[in-house]
# Entry
Amino acid sequence: MNQAVRRRAPASRGQPTGTPAATVARSRNIAARPALLFPLLLGAMAFSLTLGRYPLELGQLFQALLGQLDGEQAKLVSDLVMEIRLPRVLAAVLIGMSLAVSGAAFQSMFMNPLVSPGVLGVLSGASFGAAVGMVASGHWIVVQLCAFGFGMAAVGIALLIGRIQRQNALILLILGGIISGAFFNALLSVVKYVADPYDDLPAIVYWLMGSLATVDKDTVLLLAIPMVIGIGVIASLGRALNALSMGEDEARSLGIPVRAVRLTVILAATLISALTVVMGGMIGWVGLVVPHIARLLVGPDNRVLIPASAMIGGIYLLLVDNVSRLAFSVEVPIGILTALIGIPFFAWALRNVKRGWG
Amino acid sequence: MLEVENLHAGYDRTRILHGIDFSVEAGESVALLGPNGCGKTTLLRTLLGLHPASDGEVRLDGRPIAGMPDKERARAVAYIPQVHAGAFGHRVVDVAMLGRSPHRGLFEPFTDDDREIAEQALERVGIADLAERPYTQVSGGQRQLTLIARALVQNARLFVMDEPVNGLDFGNQLRLLDLVRSLSDQGLTVIQTTHYPDHALYSADRVILLHEGQVMANGPPEAAMTPERLARLYGVEARLARVGERTVCIPERLAAPPP
# Structure
């Protein structure tokens, strides 16, 4: 794409024919490319719904979704789709979207393409919370509430540390996140150490690897609402994020209410990231990898990048989850796969640091 | 249009500006000179409303700039920072279009009109052909021009420029100074900081010399920059000399350190 841009002939406004003008026309319609990704996401969802120990055909699938199946197997197939596969597919899509959108937003906000959604400590806090919940009660709802609560608390601590000094607010915020994250990781070790090694400890360890095997329909539907709202809030701030990616002083002198936008983005991103842990445990590297892929496809403009990251994040985690549940005879925790894919990708992405992004 | 009255400012316990007074008329081009650490940057940030004054005030057309909403101030005052690389390769036209932000709601999308305005501004600074290029992949001079185009898009009356020629090559420095001149000839008010007396002589109507947080001199470049003041400011023995039509500043040697 860069090649094409470089070769572009100078200033050819208002000419509908020829390649250069076509480039302009296409790039003007900034919503086009993320919109193209949406049918791809739907296709990936339909495809994933047909996969499993009991393979379905697309026709059967649509009949089941529309409640039009008759005969003996009707109940079986429709239960399989509606109660088991659809919740899991939705969970994968929502988690992938949330992590990718948080990552993309944080990268612009911190003016650093190498930060991830966990930069302010939300994932560490949520992991600790989940572990505490498992040791203390074992009720699923308690685990989820603790994961959510401590995820939010960890970011709150990072924000408090970041406010110590008014200058260099961003770097202090990142340091605050590192401190907060390290603190909750240490607390997590304490919980692991005191946890019952036959029962609680394996549960905690498994949780930290991330898995969608235990998602249930009610949780997914309940959490979907705040997740979609959080994603929507961040997507609506795309233009403000573009200004923020030029630096605080410049954004403010362009009339952007920097602190309000920053706080809104942090809150929304923390909310949806914490909810991904509630839904599926720790699933790392998605928020770092997907925004890079999205930037390669649609460029760095957040008005397009955020929706594109959402679509690609959904597709990506869906495909990884399919591998996680089907490729091996035993299900592999999805967090292991996203890490095994994400870490080499990260190393590769570092090569681009000097060249500028997008 | 801009009045600075008894301005004090600083960070935590460090006081940096100690009672600055000056005013700038509409259409003037003013250069701020002073050694590193004299408070130039703090003064600029205070003028832009980005840094609070601890005493005194800055008024724009009679109104205190401190209480002005960011958006309203952004329609009157544009900030052109030192040229920077930027972390992301936004297209040049998109960077310029950000200048429309104060004219649109936070959630309101930009329209084709906004893009038209951005393209015209790029045309005006002579880089219309770079519109689709990533900002990270054009030269330093072209990035600085992009930031000036963004200020034009902003439609501000006052341009505040922080060392606009910093890091540019010989030719691009002159190109930029000429552009600054022509902007002020077209009626815009310009305040720029610079490290080069020659650049003040070349492109400013007036210089303000800043020394340890106070105004040392304020007047036409040739009158204000006396050898005594340059020696006190920079520790350099320098003189102004006439060469043809132009006055230039010639550094002779480092001044003897004060006893």
